[in-house]
Amino acid sequence: MKIIKSTLTQSLFLTVQLSPMKRYEQYAQEITDLIKAQTLRPGDRLPSVRQASAHRKISPSTVFEAYYLLEARGLVQARPRSGYYVNALTQPTQAEPHTALPSQQSTPVVISDLVFEVLGSTRNLDVVPLGSAFPSPTLFPLDKLARSLTPAMRKLAPSRMVEDLTLGNDRLRRQIGLRYVVEGAAVEVDEIVITHGAMEALNLCLQVVTQPGDVVAVESPTFYSALQALERLNLRAVEVATHPRDGVDLDSLAEVLQRHPVKACWFMPNFQNPLGSLMPDHRKQALVELLATHEVPLIEDDVYGELYFGLRRPLPAKVYDRHGLVMHCSSFSKCLAPGYRVGWVAAGRFAQQVQRLKLMTTLATAIPSQLAISDYLQRGGYERHLRQLRQILATQQALALRLIAQHFPKSTRVTRPEGGYFLWLELPPQVDTLQLHRLALSQRISLAPGHMFSADQRFSHCLRLNYGHPGDDRFEEALKTVGLLACRLCEETGLGDARHPHLPPQYMSVPHTTT
Amino acid sequence: MKIIKSTLTQSLFLTVQLSPMKRYEQYAQEITDLIKAQTLRPGDRLPSVRQASAHRKISPSTVFEAYYLLEARGLVQARPRSGYYVNALTQPTQAEPHTALPSQQSTPVVISDLVFEVLGSTRNLDVVPLGSAFPSPTLFPLDKLARSLTPAMRKLAPSRMVEDLTLGNDRLRRQIGLRYVVEGAAVEVDEIVITHGAMEALNLCLQVVTQPGDVVAVESPTFYSALQALERLNLRAVEVATHPRDGVDLDSLAEVLQRHPVKACWFMPNFQNPLGSLMPDHRKQALVELLATHEVPLIEDDVYGELYFGLRRPLPAKVYDRHGLVMHCSSFSKCLAPGYRVGWVAAGRFAQQVQRLKLMTTLATAIPSQLAISDYLQRGGYERHLRQLRQILATQQALALRLIAQHFPKSTRVTRPEGGYFLWLELPPQVDTLQLHRLALSQRISLAPGHMFSADQRFSHCLRLNYGHPGDDRFEEALKTVGLLACRLCEETGLGDARHPHLPPQYMSVPHTTT
After folding, report:
1. How far apart (Å, rounded) are the C-alpha atoms in residues A3 and B172?
2. Per the CB < 8 Å rule, is A149 touching B147?
3. pTM for the full model?
4. Per-residue pLDDT band at A124 (split at 50, 70, 90)
């Protein structure tokens, strides 16, 4: 209950309007606590639905919802005609990756060629897209969205084609504003600018707060698009040590802020790409406060925040912003409408500058896309879609972890993110993952080698792996092949790590955030 | 026939695939020549449809089409139950503006605040948008486009949501490529990148060929978005003298190229914003050749090219490009689908760089918008829509010119562009058009003062006037009011220019391009 308590405490200060936990969530949390405390152990059977319902005086459907949630989180599994059983989670088979120690020097960035090479390979439909940045488009209600397009545009008065040009469609901005209210962030609708996806939002923010030559702090490893943006704008990157579970290391950041004239931070506190790390709320708060003392703006990339496997959406760091220094960027591309290119930024004190820059660079965001999403949100069904999506991704993660445990070199380390659709793998140091990517590509499998995620070569034995393509029946075979190729690379170096005992299939737990 | 002949001659060298003139176009051209030669004079009646049909052995509908075209070009007018009569065009009532002589110094640019002030005022629907950059959205087949959206998206395989991300939708790019073939430009489909409107295309091109501090040549006066882009990227502008009818002065440009290390030119050869000037084809060719000798890329902004009032679309300068140095940017925003944000660039040798930069800044262009336009083009009707649109705009221009002749200070000079929806007015030098804009705004009328179109103050007595709102019944009254305010400003300075004899309403001719 720690996470929840600390959230509630913060909410007193921040007027966070958290809706109270639902019954099934409470019951699921109690069982989670029992599993953590090892009162319930792997293989134990949960109370039957009838027992639990009678005993706890809750409806059978509430019990079902709770078990369903626990299953989605990988804590229990259903056995047909038998009931729900606790999964093995005492010790995960594989350790999590190390926290890399960046050089703390600011460096110019040159990674684009590699990124384009790798991304180019993921667009071929013949290739299994383990290296892709996108989840499968089949995961989204594309048909429902398409049905919204024509009626929404036909309802629009032609004059709005001009009016909506600047900030974006008014109703959509209010709908986004409402979601901030629910999350507890004090965001004014007027500071929200609709953009062509989060990518445009992030780039606008970066340009607004920097000049060529400036130093920008990023995570390590970091999302290659952040590095590309720095490269393009002639900015210097200083990488901050980032824990694979808890995100940016605040001591390291404090040191960086002392040593460098940092003009902005570009961080992803929720399900960071590529690590999947999730900053605990109190660390988000400390981050925002630390940056405020240095008057450094935070460009918060929060595109994966909705894809959580836990009980509720992790808060954006923006919730803790009292000085308008946090520019919170997100989009619908990863959770609802890929290809529609609708994102936004709540840009705090920089809102007008962002808006003007947008007007000068792409003028306005496509109106059909905005209206279709607004219409979809209005009609309801978004929350239900998100619940399904989260469960599918959680299940896929469990599958991917099991396959990695079975087929990858023994000393492979791997993250177990609490959301999103990426795993980050640390292979034995002798494995060059760019070589692995090229070997895999000859087998029609793409990978995202660690080289893409840093301005230096510290992650050349690491790998980002996309498990967000559940409909793709080539996925299992592809993971086995990559594991085999990695083992072979190990063997060639003669270090003997390659032979990996074939572990029995098993679920692995999603690790918990330490608070 | 001069224009046509020179085009055909060029086509021999350039394999321009011009479709042969249609019958009605030939007949209209013959009458145009007779009017120019003063064989037919103002007030003369054209042969009746029956006479002409019998005499020339062409169908009555062909004669009708020819007269219809001549009327759209302002050369003749129909009188009910009487026939078609030649308009007065011996001497236009008002002279055309002077060619301004820029300083030839390169200067940093600071105009954004003013531009935002003025543009902000045009978004209020209560204000008559004479200062707007956009034509009325009621001019476009918005309902037809909207009807395309849902079916087009439902037909799309989800996998294409990923495939289409980079360059844009394949079919749309081929459709655009086909239009280049018709115009005679040797453009490969692979060099076409779909963008969020021409604005993004232009900005991407500019970034690809410049570094901060570089010098870029622009027209004088020039489109304020070009100036804003330079300002944003810390580039220096050198303005090149631009003739209000014939566009960029090539001698001035040659001199500029000698004196400055120009890294790019951003020009609008077709219906330049704000002048409406149209470079004759042989000057476009000379421009491209001059720039090629200096290895200077041309960023060609051609968003108004389809809005011609003459017989055929003016060629893009890109037609003459043999070195891949011309980046031809255009969009559907001004001629078909405002608010859809679909533009493109055919970027020649810079195509891959543009594509990569696009991928890094906004990732991809909204797919629903692309598909709706592609679907609309496929179904046909675009040419018919364009013909109607051109005729409406030509008629509106004639109305605006008549009102200006009646109500503006006597010595007002005004352009008579052969396309687009802007007039450029040169008022007596004592009139400050920013003051005029603010006075007009208190009467709920917006204007675009000359200050917005140059990095210095040479155009502070000039004005861009948008006549592209034919449905707006406030238009006539607004023009009268602005004329009255301008006269009053003249009177206050005591120069006596203000009292303007009330001329009888009359059509004024569209001037011809000297070749």
Report:
1. 50
2. no
3. 0.83
4. confident
